[in-house]
Design a protein that fits this description.
The protein contains seven helices and eleven strands. It has 226 residues and is α/β, with parallel strands linked by helices.
């Protein structure tokens, strides 16, 4: 018999979020039996994503229910969120009562700022992995990393892998496989790549020069104590 006990899943929302960091795991987790999804932000104003469109939170920090699963997405907005005391306090408060504490992409640094990754194995987007020790974490090269009740995953699309992994932990592999089938998550990318280990070096170097060298420098500055 399928386990339909209720599970509250709280996603942190903040300006500059990478929408797929949120919407990919949300799509899978929303199909888990008993799941209720919450999008919590500092207020109920629309959250502008990195894709240009906005997402409406369902709750503000004060009214959000206690999460069974807390999920912290990433995005370029993490740099500003790291300095927002209300956001960090919300993460710490929710994490204290959550059965699972999770992140997608650079959301790991928000977990770290809340003191949740000290001494823990963790991962994040490949462009920022070298900064994980700044929050006390041990970097691991993997799409999904579990350490106790902390689950971190790599960049953007890794959120689906994390979600299905967690669904299997909570509801069994058959449920996770059925959800994977329902959303037709059957990757067959047009190019052999998606990670520096499998992408031509010139493409990786070009992307780092255009985007991730500067982005990682901004993240490092935000993680450096004043």
């Amino acid at each position: 018999m399928t386990d339909i006990r209720p599970i509250t899943i709280v996603f942190l929302l903040f300006p500059g979020i990478t929408q797929l960091d949120f919407t990919a795991p949300a799509q899978a987790l929303s199909r888990m039996p008993g799941a209720t999804l919450v999008g919590a932000a500092a207020n109920l104003d629309p959250i502008v994503t990195d894709s240009g469109f906005s997402i409406l939170p369902t709750h503000d920090f004060a009214s959000a229910p206690q999460a069974d699963i807390l999920c912290v997405p990433g995005g370029h907005g993490v740099v500003n969120a790291l300095g927002d005391q209300a956001t960090i306090a919300f993460i710490a408060r929710q994490a204290a009562g959550a059965a699972w504490v999770t992140s997608v992409c650079t959301g790991a640094f928000l977990l770290g700022r809340a003191g949740l990754l000290a001494g823990k194995r963790a991962t994040t987007h490949w462009g920022y992995t070298h900064l994980l020790p700044r929050v006390g974490a041990e970097p691991v090269k993997a799409r999904v990393v579990e350490h106790g009740n902390i689950v971190t995953c790599g960049g953007v699309t890794s959120g689906l892998d994390f979600a299905l992994t967690l669904i299997a932990r909570l509801k069994g592999e058959a449920v996770a496989q059925a959800i994977q089938l329902a959303i037709e998550y059957d990757p067959a990318p047009p190019f052999a790549g998606g990670h520096p280990d499998r992408t031509p070096a010139a493409i990786t170097a070009g992307l780092k020069t255009r985007v991730y060298d500067a982005a990682a420098a901004r993240m490092e500055a935000a993680l450096t104590p004043p």
